[in-house]
């Protein structure tokens, strides 16, 4: 563009002295030279120099001409700008320029010159600084307020200043820029949107990162002008957020970034904006809500933010978004909670309730992030998270999703290591989360192998870090074991047991590799590999990887050597680390970034490697134990008493003696254990004996000194120790000494001579020792024991009642309250069983006699002599002992064969005993024997009777036992190839014939056509069939149907000629067929196999016999299905008496049984009942017993209360007695029975058979009180009435 020519001024221009006329004819250098003098002149002038102001007015006007304003030379322009700035200073407050256009041109010209501030190293920078300083000091730009388009000038000025500022500018430059811009904002009428944009654009993250100084300048400017600019900012956000006018500014899409920055600068800038955000939080657009939530999360979570306390409505509205329907919004809220907890602990209370809800969120990611949020805050400072928040993490350790469970478990483990192991915050913090160790170990009870592996990893890395040196590691384990609760100790013991079992499997696999290759060997290997794979995650993949690993083992001998060393009993922890590292190195393929095969092998190695226990570790544990015994340990500092430390330390060593017996073999260890044997604490001595028993195989040959000291101690414990000590002492002698016969004889002979029934307190330990001696050495002691059993145990002890029991009416008492005589009798029963188990034959018919004795004990309800001397609680103990004894004998095949069906049924009825504890303990013993496959399958049928148990938890426990047992049997069948005979004894479906036979001989089943009794039978059948029919594997439903149909074509082997007994059997079969048909649609298909029936219970009929009779009427089927009879036609109902359908009409009597008319009827409903058809219907709801086990069996406390109620109950006009449950009385008619109005029936399969059934927890005991008084007056003593109502 051509530069304009200088026009001659209208008025002659006066120049300062020495300055010639400035025209376009002179050179640039000369022009600059002359302008410098002019600049100097104006610099020296002040506002009071009126004469000079007038003199140089023409020059001032001349300098504003186009020639200067558009001069191409930047030095000229700079000097002219400096002159103009001084002119505004000198002539202030009125500028010498009157034209608005001219003023605009001048200020735009000056603004352009300010760009020179950018280069601080320029020679002219000082002049640029002078220009800025002058403009800021005089506030020259305020003149522009009078111009219509002043906004253009200001925008240009702001843009220029924000663009030129950089990190080379000193504080003065920034200060003058600030003064210049703030004066324009604060003294103007308002800030336009365009001008506001020039400020706010510097806060956007992209610009902020490009020019940090511009951001700081804008930040400082906003802080200074907050009072003025806040209105303009509010207007901008109002238009964008509320009115949706995004076109008002190019920054509309950055509103949330701007709000965050403005809030960080000064919350006052957003005083009017926050209510608008509350409006946005309630938007219908999920993405919009998400953006607002992200913004507010940053605002509320900022370290020094007080927004939550200053704006409670907005805070509450934000908390509401924790329950937003949009998943990303809830997720964002949960992530925010972490920062909020860390920066604002005072808000934890508000967040807790919302995090509680989100910890149960259906979305896995949200539940996961709740855990991360709480754990991160806890790791920073445990005070930041309250007990409730930690409780949420605790709950999530049982989440259905593995990722969530893993995060929760690992989070708790990290907290435990930081605060409990390293004590980073003192004992108070450690105490707050002391529950973590127990909770983590409890997870080992879960079925998932992933959970088990993670617990093992946590134990090895966080609870007892294997990286610690041996002394520290064992101290950690020693005190951890002492502080664990009972269930956690069991879990830890189980963990070591599982690891030891897996080591055994690997050892067996390696042993197979040493044998010649054969099909049998390959099959055996495959079986071992399958078992190993079951102990690794993802069993399907684990099987493939284990096969591959086995192949590698076969090809690589060095690898086998390393693996053998790893599982060797003598492998130390350090050697184990080397072996694992070496095996891993051999299986690593560098080119593979991920190697799932190697990961699976690592899982296996981690489980079998002894990273904690070796000989050195056991020595360290023994030293800690010695310190506790001597009183020099840090027991109190670790939060345990010395006695607890000693006892738990011995228990720990006892457990380890099972899994690592070789590590104990040292003189020092055994010397310490001998010291423990001499301690007064019975548990300590017992544990020490057991450790000797488990580990002392080489004592006799290698440690003579220990042997000579140990033998007298063991003899003393076997003769005068506690029963448990005596048992362990006998077993210890048998396990570790070669001359065991001599040693046992030295114990047996004096004990057998000293037996005296008149001093029962001194009988218990001798009976225990004698029983175990006869079991361990039957050949040596069977004969002498026979005379002891016949003459002393049975005649003198069991058949005599020397003392009178406590008649307090309780069904159960604590062990300490049981009379010594009864304790001795219980041990006598156990002695009989041990003696028989040792002989393992019935040549002398001793087993028959014993079984008859035990049956008599059950028939007499525990009072064998029937002299009424024994208390009820003692009778409960004896019933339990008798039932357990029969069950124990049944585990030996030679005795199982001679147990009659009647004796089996007597044993089974113990599970329905009136005493809660008898039922509980018997069921547990039954389950343990069945799950180990020790008992025959018929004993699984006993659990069907649990459907009659009045206590809900007992029924639930029985169902879990059934599930476990059936699962174990199915798994065993899958893993092993079995013969047909063996299969029949294991296949769970074959329990049905035993169950049907057992139920048909139920003492309660006296009226086979009555609805109430058939309903009980149906519930018992369903209790078992529900579990069996969960899946229809191999058409098992049809197999069950066929099996029951086959039973209908047989006779009852127990009473083959008894028509009533056979009818009851067929009725139970029909009920079973009814249940199966209503449960399964596939049961009518053809059965794959013809079921075999046990000849001991069923007799085959003639070939021509065909039983196609239906024993259940249509009405009865309808009632069993719905609980209601089939409705009668309208006409048929005319003139019929109105009765309750399906109910027997009772006539009120004045007997004691009236007092029980309001007792609850326990009803365990099946899917066939109407309550299951409509789960929400309460019309047929049954009342569950809610009484505790103590209330159920503690009879006396309820007698007074119930007696008071008796009178009021008798006033009820239509009271009807509840049907009694229990065995039939021995005689059909007795005064007691007649007076009670009880129903009598002949005993099926033998008179007097049966047991009292379980009592309803809510039953009234007043009737029992009356009955017991009447029974005392009964001289015959033959009738055992039911004590409690069902």
Widest sheet, order of strands: 1-2
Radius of gyration over C-alpha positions, nearest whole angstrom: 47 Å
Q: What structural class do the secondary elements suggest?
A: mainly alpha
How many DSSP E strands?
Answer: 2
Helix coverage percent: 55-70%
Determine the number of helices (DSSP H or I, runs of at least 4 residues): 61
Largest sheet: 2 strands, antiparallel
Unreliable runs: 1-5, 1128-1252, 1255-1286
- Give the averaged pLDDT, no decimals: 80
Shape: elongated
- Give the termini distance in whole angstroms: 114 Å
The percent range for strand residues is under 5%
Polypeptide structure, described:
With 1286 residues, the protein is mainly α. Helix content is 61%, strand content 0%. It contains 61 helices and two strands. It has a two-stranded antiparallel ribbon. Helix 44 runs parallel beside helix 46 (872-889). The protein is elongated, with a radius of gyration of 47 Å.
Topology, pairings included?
Elements: H1 28-44, H2 50-55, H3 57-63, H4 66-69, H5 74-90, H6 100-113, H7 125-138, H8 150-164, H9 171-187, H10 193-200, H11 205-210, H12 212-224, H13 226-242, H14 255-265, H15 274-281, H16 286-301, H17 307-310, H18 312-320, H19 327-343, H20 348-358, H21 364-380, H22 387-396, H23 402-421, H24 427-432, H25 435-442, H26 449-463, H27 470-483, H28 486-513, H29 519-533, H30 539-555, H31 557-567, H32 573-587, H33 596-608, H34 615-630, H35 642-659, H36 667-677, H37 682-695, H38 699-702, H39 704-720, H40 723-736, H41 740-753, H42 764-776, H43 778-798, H44 820-839, H45 846-859, H46 872-889, H47 893-896, H48 901-908, H49 916-931, H50 952-975, H51 980-986, H52 991-1000, H53 1011-1028, H54 1036-1048, E1 1050-1052, H55 1059-1079, E2 1098-1100, H56 1114-1122, H57 1170-1173, H58 1189-1193, H59 1196-1210, H60 1231-1236, H61 1262-1272
Helix pairs in contact: 1-5, 5-6, 5-7, 6-8, 7-9, 8-10, 8-12, 9-12, 13-15, 14-16, 15-18, 16-19, 19-20, 19-21, 21-22, 21-23, 23-26, 25-28, 27-34, 27-35, 28-29, 28-31, 28-35, 29-30, 31-32, 34-35, 34-36, 35-37, 36-37, 36-39, 37-40, 39-40, 39-41, 40-41, 40-42, 41-42, 42-43, 42-44, 43-44, 44-45, ...
Protein name: PDS5 cohesin associated factor A
Biased composition (Basic and acidic residues): 1186-1208, 1272-1286
Organism: Cynoglossus semilaevis (Tongue sole)
């Amino acid at each position: 563009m051509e530069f304009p020519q200088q026009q001659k001024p209208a008025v002659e221009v006066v120049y300062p002295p020495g300055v010639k006329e400035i025209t376009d004819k002179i050179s640039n250098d000369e022009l600059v030279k002359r302008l410098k003098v002019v600049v100097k002149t104006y610099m020296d002038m002040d506002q009071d120099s009126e004469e000079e102001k007038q003199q140089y007015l023409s020059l001032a006007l001349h300098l504003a001409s186009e020639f200067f304003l558009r001069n191409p030379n930047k030095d000229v322009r700079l000097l002219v700008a400096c002159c103009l700035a001084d002119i505004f200073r000198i002539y202030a407050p009125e500028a010498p320029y009157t034209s608005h256009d001219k003023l605009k041109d001048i200020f735009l010209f000056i603004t352009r010159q300010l760009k020179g501030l950018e280069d601080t190293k320029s020679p002219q920078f000082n002049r640029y600084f002078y220009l800025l300083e002058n403009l800021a000091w005089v506030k020259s730009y305020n003149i522009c307020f009078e111009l219509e388009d002043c906004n253009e000038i200001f925008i240009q000025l702001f843009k220029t200043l924000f663009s030129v500022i950089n990190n080379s500018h000193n504080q003065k430059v920034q200060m003058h820029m600030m003064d210049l811009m703030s004066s324009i904002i604060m003294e103007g009428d308002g800030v336009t949107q365009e001008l506001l944009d020039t400020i706010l654009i510097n806060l956007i993250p992209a610009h902020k990162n490009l020019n940090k100084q511009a951001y700081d300048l804008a930040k400082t400017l906003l802080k200074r002008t907050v009072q003025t600019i806040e209105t303009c900012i509010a207007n901008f956000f109002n238009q964008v957020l509320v009115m949706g006018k995004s076109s008002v500014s190019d920054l509309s899409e950055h509103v949330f970034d701007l709000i965050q920055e403005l809030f960080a600068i000064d919350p006052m800038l957003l005083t009017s904006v926050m209510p608008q955000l509350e409006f946005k939080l309630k938007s219908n657009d999920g993405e919009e809500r998400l953006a607002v939530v992200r913004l507010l999360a940053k605002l509320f979570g900022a370290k020094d933010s007080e927004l939550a306390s200053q704006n409670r409505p907005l805070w509450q509205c934000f908390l509401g978004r924790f329950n937003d329907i949009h998943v990303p919004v809830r997720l964002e809220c949960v992530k925010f909670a972490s920062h909020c907890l860390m920066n604002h602990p005072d808000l934890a209370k508000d967040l807790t309730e919302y995090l509680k809800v989100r910890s149960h969120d259906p979305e896995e990611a949200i539940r996961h992030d709740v855990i991360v949020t709480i754990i991160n805050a806890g790791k920073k400072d445990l005070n930041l998270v309250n007990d409730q928040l930690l409780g949420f993490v605790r709950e999530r350790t049982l989440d259905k999703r593995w990722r969530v469970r893993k995060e929760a478990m690992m989070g708790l483990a990290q907290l435990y290591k930081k605060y409990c192991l390293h004590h980073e915050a003192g004992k108070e913090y450690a105490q707050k989360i002391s529950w973590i160790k127990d909770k983590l170990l409890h997870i080992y009870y879960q079925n998932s192998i992933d959970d088990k592996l993670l617990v093992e990893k946590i134990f090895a890395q966080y609870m007892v870090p294997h990286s610690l040196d041996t002394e520290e590691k064992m101290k950690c384990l020693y005190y951890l074991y002492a502080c664990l609760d009972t269930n956690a100790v069991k879990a830890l013991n189980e963990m070591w047991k599982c690891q030891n079992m897996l080591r055994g499997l690997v050892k067996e696999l390696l042993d197979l590799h040493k044998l010649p290759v054969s099909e049998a060997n390959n099959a055996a290997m495959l079986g071992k590999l399958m078992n190993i794979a079951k102990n690794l995650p993802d069993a399907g993949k684990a099987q493939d990887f284990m096969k591959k690993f086995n192949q590698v083992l076969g090809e690589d001998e060095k690898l086998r050597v390393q693996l053998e060393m790893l599982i060797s009993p003598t492998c130390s922890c350090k050697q184990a680390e080397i072996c694992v590292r070496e095996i891993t190195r051999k299986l690593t393929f560098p080119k593979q970034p991920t190697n799932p095969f190697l990961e699976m092998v690592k899982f296996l190695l981690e489980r079998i490697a002894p990273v904690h226990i070796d000989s050195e570790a056991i020595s360290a544990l023994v030293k800690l134990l010695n310190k506790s015994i001597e009183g020099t340990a840090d027991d109190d500092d670790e939060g345990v008493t010395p006695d607890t430390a000693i006892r738990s330390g011995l228990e720990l060593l006892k457990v380890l003696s099972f899994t690592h017996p070789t590590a104990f073999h040292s003189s020092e260890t055994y010397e310490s254990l001998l010291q423990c044997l001499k301690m007064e604490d019975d548990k300590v001595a017992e544990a020490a004996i057991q450790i000797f028993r488990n580990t002392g195989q080489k004592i006799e040959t290698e440690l003579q000194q220990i042997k000579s000291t140990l033998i007298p101690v063991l003899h003393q414990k076997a003769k005068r120790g506690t029963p448990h000590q005596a048992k362990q002492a006998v077993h210890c002698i048998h396990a570790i000494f070669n001359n065991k016969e001599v040693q046992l004889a030295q114990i047996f002979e004096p004990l057998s001579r000293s037996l005296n029934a008149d001093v029962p307190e001194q009988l218990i330990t001798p009976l225990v020792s004698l029983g175990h001696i006869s079991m361990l050495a039957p050949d040596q002691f069977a004969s002498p024991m026979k005379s002891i059993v016949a003459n002393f145990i049975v005649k003198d002890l069991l058949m005599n009642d020397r003392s009178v029991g406590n008649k307090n009416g309780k069904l159960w008492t604590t062990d300490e309250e049981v009379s010594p005589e009864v304790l001795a009798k219980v041990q006598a029963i156990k002695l009989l069983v041990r003696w028989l188990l040792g002989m393992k034959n019935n040549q002398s018919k001793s087993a028959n006699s014993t079984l008859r004795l035990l049956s008599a004990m059950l028939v007499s309800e525990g009072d064998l002599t029937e002299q009424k001397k024994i208390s009820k609680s003692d009778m409960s103990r004896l019933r339990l002992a008798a039932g357990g004894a029969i069950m124990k004998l049944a585990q030996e095949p030679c005795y199982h064969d001679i147990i009659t069906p009647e004796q089996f049924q007597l044993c089974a009825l113990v599970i329905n005993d009136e005493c809660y504890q008898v039922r509980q303990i018997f069921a547990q013993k039954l389950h343990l024997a069945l799950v180990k496959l020790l008992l025959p399958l018929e004993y699984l049928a006993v659990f069907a009777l649990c459907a009659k148990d009045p206590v809900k938890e007992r029924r639930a426990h029985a169902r879990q036992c059934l599930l476990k047992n059936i699962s174990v049997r199915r798994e065993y069948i899958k893993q092993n190839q079995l013969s047909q005979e063996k299969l029949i004894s294991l296949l769970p479906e074959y329990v049905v014939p035993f169950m049907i036979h057992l139920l048909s001989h139920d003492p309660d089943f006296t009226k086979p056509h009555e609805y109430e009794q058939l309903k009980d039978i149906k519930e018992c059948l369903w209790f078992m069939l529900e579990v069996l029919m969960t899946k229809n594997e191999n058409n098992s439903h049809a197999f069950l149907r066929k099996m029951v149909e086959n039973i209908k074509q047989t006779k009852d082997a127990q009473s083959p000629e008894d028509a009533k007994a056979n009818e009851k059997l067929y009725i139970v079969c029909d009920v079973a067929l009814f249940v199966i048909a209503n449960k399964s649609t596939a049961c009518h298909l053809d059965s794959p196999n013809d079921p075999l029936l046990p000849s001991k219970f069923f007799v085959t009929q003639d070939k021509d016999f065909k039983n196609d009779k239906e024993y259940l009427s249509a009405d009865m089927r309808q009632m069993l299905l719905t609980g209601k009879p089939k409705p009668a036609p309208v006409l048929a109902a005319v003139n019929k008496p109105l009765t309750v359908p399906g109910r027997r009409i009772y006539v009120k009597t004045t007997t004691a049984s009236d007092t029980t008319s309001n007792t609850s009827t326990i009803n365990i409903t099946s899917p066939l009942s109407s309550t299951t058809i409509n789960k929400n219907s309460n019309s047929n709801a049954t009342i569950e017993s809610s009484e505790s086990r103590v209330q159920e069996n503690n009879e006396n406390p309820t007698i007074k209360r119930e007696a008071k109620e008796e009178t009021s109950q008798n006033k009820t006009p239509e009271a009807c007695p509840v049907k009694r449950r229990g065995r039939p009385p021995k005689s059909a008619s007795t005064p007691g029975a007649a007076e009670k109005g009880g129903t009598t029936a002949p005993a099926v399969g033998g008179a007097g058979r049966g047991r009292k059934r379980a009592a309803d927890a809510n039953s009234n005991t007043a009737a029992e009180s009356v009955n017991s008084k009447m029974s005392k007056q009964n001289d015959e003593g033959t009738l055992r009435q039911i004590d409690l109502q069902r």
